[in-house]
């Protein structure tokens, strides 16, 4: 049985829940109490020594980091539909997974942390960087429905949560119609599940 060590408000945990739902996979969700610091103590640190959610176990397999977990689930349970094998297509997926873990995490996700959880940041700089990122994504999506392929891949799942939750960071998507249309396409996928804010 797949076990997901989870936190409801985490966009990174939600990525994993969303892919599991889209694939129709059963799993056990184990809530990690971040307010109590459970993620920074044993036994959770044995799963992820960096003390971050999500973590996933599948029998003897133990994984941390939402992007790595998406890759594992897609390859183990989703075949090539969600993670292509062809070199160029796989490269496209990986570059957008990198965008999710760097540019998106450092901009729209950081703005959300600031307003929802009081994380101290330079919000003016983060807002400027967020809108620059959204402009790049909007331009990219102007000529395609999905980020990395002609069908949804784990790239779309990895990038979706914090973009869809932009309003939590007091960021507007109004000037980015192609991003908005992409968000709505993801919400229409069979098996889609939401989270607070989506």
Keywords:
about 10% strand, about 200 residues, alpha+beta, 4 strands, about 50% helix
Structure description:
It is a single chain. Helix content is 50%, strand content 9%. It is globular and about 45 Å long. The protein has 198 residues and is of the alpha+beta class. The longest helix has 20 residues, at 87-106. The protein is built from eight helices and four strands. The chain has a four-stranded mixed β-sheet with strand order 2-1-3-4, covered by helices on one side. The chain has helices spanning 11-22, 44-47, 66-77, 87-106, 108-117, 123-141, 154-164, 177-187, and strands at 2-6, 27-31, 55-58, 61-64. The model has no long low-confidence stretch (mean pLDDT 97).
Instruction: Tell me the helix content.
Output: 40-55%
Low-confidence stretches: none
**Biggest β-sheet description:** 4 strands, mixed
Give me the Rg, rounded.
Answer: 16 Å
Query: Any idea what the shape is?
Result: globular
User: H/E order of the elements?
Assistant: EHEHEEHHHHHH
Count of alpha/pi helices: 8
Termini distance? Answer: 27 Å
Count of DSSP strands:
4
Q: What structural class do the secondary elements suggest?
A: alpha+beta
Identify the strand order in the major beta sheet: 2-1-3-4
């Amino acid at each position: 049985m797949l076990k997901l060590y989870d936190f409801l408000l985490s966009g990174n945990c939600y990525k994993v829940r969303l892919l599991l739902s889209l694939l129709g996979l059963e799993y056990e969700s184990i809530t990690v109490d971040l307010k109590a610091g459970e993620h920074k103590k044993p036994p959770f640190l044995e799963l992820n020594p960096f003390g971050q959610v999500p973590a996933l176990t599948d029998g003897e397999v133990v994984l941390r980091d939402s992007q790595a977990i998406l890759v594992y689930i897609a390859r183990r349970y989703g075949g090539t539909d969600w993670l292509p094998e062809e070199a160029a297509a796989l490269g496209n997926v990986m570059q957008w997974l990198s965008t999710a873990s760097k540019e998106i995490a450092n901009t729209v996700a950081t703005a959300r942390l600031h307003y929802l959880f009081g994380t101290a940041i330079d919000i003016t700089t983060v807002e400027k960087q967020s809108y620059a990122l959204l402009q790049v994504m909007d331009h990219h999506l102007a000529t395609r429905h999905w980020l990395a392929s002609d069908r949804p891949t784990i790239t779309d799942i990895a990038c979706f949560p914090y973009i869809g939750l932009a309003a939590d960071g007091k960021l507007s998507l109004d000037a980015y119609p192609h991003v908005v249309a992409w968000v709505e396409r993801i919400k229409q996928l069979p098996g889609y599940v939401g989270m607070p804010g989506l």
